[in-house]
Design goal:
The structure is a homodimer.
Chain A: E1 2-6, E2 13-18, H1 25-29, E3 36-42, H2 46-54, E4 61-67, H3 76-88, E5 96-101, H4 103-115, E6 121-126, H5 129-135, E7 140-145, E8 148-155, E9 161-164, H6 173-190, H7 192-206, H8 210-230, H9 245-255, H10 262-279, H11 285-297, H12 310-316, H13 324-327, E10 330-335, E11 338-342, H14 347-355
Amino acid sequence: MEVVTVDLGERSYPIYIGGGVLSSPQLLRRHIHGNQVMVVTNEVVAPLYLQQVLDLLSGLQCDTVILPDGEQHKTLHTMEKIFDGLMAKGHNRTTTLIALGGGVVGDITGFAAASFQRGINFIQIPTTVLSQVDSSVGGKTGVNHALGKNMIGAFHQPQCVLIDTHTLSTLPAREVAAGLAEVVKYGLIDDAPFFHWLEQNMKELVALESTPLTYAIKHACECKARVVAQDEKESGVRALLNLGHTFGHAIETKCGYGEYVHGEAVAIGMNMAADLSHRMGWISLKEARSVGNLLLEADLPIYPPESMGADDFLSAMALDKKTINKSLRLILMKQVGQSVITDQFEEALLQQTLSAGKSLCS
Amino acid sequence: MEVVTVDLGERSYPIYIGGGVLSSPQLLRRHIHGNQVMVVTNEVVAPLYLQQVLDLLSGLQCDTVILPDGEQHKTLHTMEKIFDGLMAKGHNRTTTLIALGGGVVGDITGFAAASFQRGINFIQIPTTVLSQVDSSVGGKTGVNHALGKNMIGAFHQPQCVLIDTHTLSTLPAREVAAGLAEVVKYGLIDDAPFFHWLEQNMKELVALESTPLTYAIKHACECKARVVAQDEKESGVRALLNLGHTFGHAIETKCGYGEYVHGEAVAIGMNMAADLSHRMGWISLKEARSVGNLLLEADLPIYPPESMGADDFLSAMALDKKTINKSLRLILMKQVGQSVITDQFEEALLQQTLSAGKSLCS
């Protein structure tokens, strides 16, 4: 088992990573301080892992809430089911919420924990690659608004995160790939050696081989933990974590949640960022293509949908053509493994990237 | 104009108090840092004061949301109207929410501000005595759950609070009295001289005379600001602010929101606390009766509803008779002007207080 500590002063917490950490009750129990817990999961994960978690909690008042599955249920309305359960079962402010599932379950449960009685403890047990390397680290919680993702939420840190890589064996291949997109992101942000390690080991990761998988998840958590510790409330460097997300969100918005899962949209967005970085003369064609190649190796899409032109991107990014340079900051690559937040890009080159479709030079 | 500073380090903020502070645009404008604002108010307050506030905001993108009036609308569902407005009008994370109204508007708007994009600025313009002396100080925000008051919320401090005592001229007398109950509370907690000042000046306060009213509101805000500064997240001394609230909440729960307004229930609760403190031998009969007398002077009820016996109180307080002493801590009076949080009360005497009805010895 590996342990990564997210260093946030009195809000610091450990991430336990390994195959089988969910078989060890003492790991979980040491982070539960009252005698009440509520496990929040969804209808897909419940039949797979709920009983295993409940078995770790004997002797406590332990209730469960099972949410519907899917990003479209990441709403205030769904969150009310958690409050209804907590109130109906008489939970007080010493209770602990346990989020068992992917990013949607984690984000809703975290926000419920931030809000119930103005803040109770919670624990994350992420069961997807994406939530293991991304949403379980950093304390961002929240739900979507019909007009925008993650618009309503709170910063609320968990007591601990338990990542059992065995839970990935039941994850659809498409979800594995989507999570690997975020893993690649950490290499691109500030860690060229990790990027090159990924180039050597991507096949094994796609095949869920335990040793490289544990290493990659640990390394990704460390990258994110390092960035979050520098900038908990996202006033500066944490924005680097949005590499690929500006373009990716535009794709998700235009295509509707569902056609692309989040990691796929981010993969395309990273490839577009590589393309623009090359057009700017910041990275070589070879470097730009290495980004696309690694994403392809992970079975990810790298080209924007043919239906989307430059205007579609700009409107989804809520940008007026006349004010692009005033209002847009992008995360681009100075090299593979060194990303920057910048408004110093040429608008004409951005237009080329946005309209390139399958002709992206990366 | 008087200014009280709530001292919370980097979250410190000023409370401006006086007749006419809403006529001075620069007070408000210096606390707005972006170029977008949204004023949230309700259908009763909007026709009275909304235009006056909008007049202070010229040159900014200024939108409004008008909520239904009443405690029964203090829900997540109502809060969504604020998010809908913010999203529809394209507000970003530099926007400022302005809460114009009583405690319900302030609490909902504050929680919306805590949650929109994980935290935006907000300003309180409380227009009732109760919200001026209580809910606008301390950063508690939130909404009710069907099974419990204020169960869902956040701690979120405003940029400033503007208290214009002129707005009280349109407040129903019953609401004035309810607010004065909380003013009396501050005297009882730790300020005997203020309690005695109130005994001398209650008639003038009920008549809304400007000079004593401004003094009383300022003094109450100072009391609360002092307590909150010591204990922002209510882990200790802040609980003293709940004097009268344990009994009061039981009355509100049993009678349904509406039969008694909050301040009335708290007035009865404080009188019951005085009664029990006297039965315990901590305060004299004369002192206990002085509490009831001052509340009567403010036109407040002091006896619990005849329909409620000891069992009704205990069940509303979610207490099993067998575990009262294990789970209940009460705020009682060692003297008038010195309250304490204690589990050192005699259960038999508590039973007498809960079943005394109109025979309360205070």
